[in-house]
Amino acid sequence: MNVNANAAEAAVRLLSTGICVPEGRMTSADIAQASGIPREIVETKLGIKEKPVPGPDDHPCAMGARAARQALERAGIDPGEIDLVIYIGEEHKEYPVWTAALKLQHDIGAVNAWGFDLASRCCTTLMAVKTAKAMMLGDARISTVLLAGGYRNGDLIDMSDPHTRFMVNLGAGGGAMILRRGSEAGAAYPKVLETSIITDGSFAEDVIIAAGGTKQPLTADLIAQGEPRFRVPDPERMKSRLDAVSMDRFAEVVERSVRDSGYSLDQIDFIGLLHMKRSAHEAVLRALGIPGRRSVYLDEFGHIGQFDPMICIELGVKQGLIRPGSIVVLAAAGIGYAWGALTLKWGGV
């Protein structure tokens, strides 16, 4: 038995990423005017210079398909090679109660694949990588997986609501990743190592869209009042509880992911964090002992949900922060609440 050959066959690698960012922009001045937050605060504390906003054709599944086509082109593979499509965009999409993976699969020509939707808010990409890797290692028929989707939850923010102003950074866009198992992927591509996830259901109803579900069906009156939108039923309670645990959980998932991958925190060459207010971003880096020069800050993108990790990869490579051999960590958190981290060992591509 060739142990090295078996190890290569079992490895899951990242062939490519793709992103779709709409042309429209909302500047810090626009956000200040809409929210009543001073522009200086928007830029310095919330950390937003501008964010992409969707145009009339920038729908979530459509943006995911555009990003998927870019990822396919970069990987140099045919859509027919994809075995599985996992839609990782938001539930706010073209139609409610709709499996977007099947539309995306059809639109890109992945005729030999099957697909499903996976959702865990802004942690979806990391959870999908963990899910895809486990499926690839457990089923020999799955060797190439596409993760793709789109995001425009900014539609659901009431800029005048002071309790949801921490979400004024929500932008729009799409992203895609192509993963492949086996020696065919080659050591030149980044190796997908371990993903760590923590979820805490005690926060499950702290940030919700109350109108439009079975508890509060939409009515003409609710629509006239501007619903459905994200709301925080008890903002003081959420803030006090979340502040007490969030930083520790960010640190825990990163530490666990890196350790389970066979490395230590001081070996991290680059960390990509979802967009959050600047002080929180810096606090996470301090807690992990990672200097700011080993990360990027998404102040020209805002928060594009689960696609922040892909944007971080693109920026990290473009700025020369991710190089062959780099240990790369992606970390995110999503309302609900979930925290996740993924470790990658960069190859030569």
Automatic annotation (TrEMBL):
Residues 260-346 form the Beta-ketoacyl-[acyl-carrier-protein] synthase III C-terminal domain. It comes from the Bacteria. Residues 116-201 form the Beta-ketoacyl-[acyl-carrier-protein] synthase III N-terminal domain. InterPro entries: ACP_syn_III_C (IPR013747), ACP_syn_III_N (IPR013751), Thiolase-like (IPR016039). Pfam families: ACP_syn_III, ACP_syn_III_C. Keywords: Acyltransferase, Transferase. NCBIfam families: PRK06840.1. This is 3-oxoacyl-ACP synthase. It comes from Paenibacillus apiarius. The lineage of its organism: Bacteria, Bacillati, Bacillota, Bacilli, Bacillales.
